[in-house]
From TrEMBL:
Pfam families according to UniProt: MOSC
GO molecular function: catalytic activity; molybdenum ion binding; pyridoxal phosphate binding
MOSC domain span: 28-165
Natural source organism: Novosphingobium pentaromativorans US6-1
Protein name: MOSC domain-containing protein
Spans traversing the lipid bilayer: none
Domain of life: Bacteria
Length: 215
């Protein structure tokens, strides 16, 4: 499976539209090749390192496929006219949460990255979209995007291809895991929640959440 990269985005920490907290959610497309390191893209930043960034959240991927859905949900918004509206580093079309699995290894440009977890949305999405209920809508619609850890450093640019190299856990799509850990599916599917413990590449925060939900 190969998918073209539509755009690559980076962002700097700055004042977040009048909010008390700074943020780097405002990602903008980058021209040319961008270095991919263990902690993410060269030139990209995160404000709150307790919940953003780090090796398991080095790169955020959000399907550009979902932008049409959001226009239907919240109406026209300037952020939806470009890439990076959801703070994503990588934009593609033709690859969604039901097609990507935890533990997948993708060749991203010359780098090798591994899917570590889905994105757990927060209040900053609502604030970024001028109060629209994007945070809750992301959970309800199960359109979170996902994160990568970097296995081999390299470079990536818009126009490069993403190629799937390994899929060790084909039953564990981002959609399924997000449903269990974030969207409430664990309440009626404890067996899957228990089985998720065998998925070794799952990022530690989501592994802890699984343990908490098991009670």
């Amino acid at each position: 499976m190969t998918i073209p990269v539509l755009s690559v985005q980076c962002g700097k920490v700055r004042s977040f539209r009048g909010a008390d907290e700074p943020s780097a959610i405002g990602k903008r497309p980058v021209a040319g090749r961008v270095g991919v390191g263990r902690l993410g893209l060269d030139g990209d930043e995160q404000a709150d390192l307790a919940v953003h960034g780090g090796p398991d959240k080095a790169i955020h991927h959000y399907p550009h496929d979902h932008y049409a859905y959001w226009r239907g949900e919240i109406g026209a918004h300037p952020l939806l006219d470009d890439f990076g509206a959801f703070g994503e580093n990588v934009s593609t079309r033709g690859l969604t949460e039901d097609m990507v699995c935890i533990g997948d290894r993708w060749r991203l440009g010359t780098a090798l990255v591994e899917v570590s977890q889905g994105r757990q949305p927060c209040w900053k999405l609502d604030h970024r979209f001028d109060g629209a209920r994007v945070n809750a809508g992301t959970v309800r619609a199960r359109r979170p995007g996902w994160y990568y850890r970097v296995i081999e450093e390299g470079e990536v640019a818009a126009g490069d291809l993403m190629a799937l190299e390994q899929r060790p856990y084909p039953d564990w799509t981002v959609l399924r895991v997000f449903g269990l850990l974030i969207a409430g599916d664990h309440k009626r599917d404890r067996a899957s929640l228990e089985a998720l413990g065998d998925v070794a590449p799952l990022a530690e925060p989501w592994a802890r959440r699984r343990t908490q939900l098991l009670g």
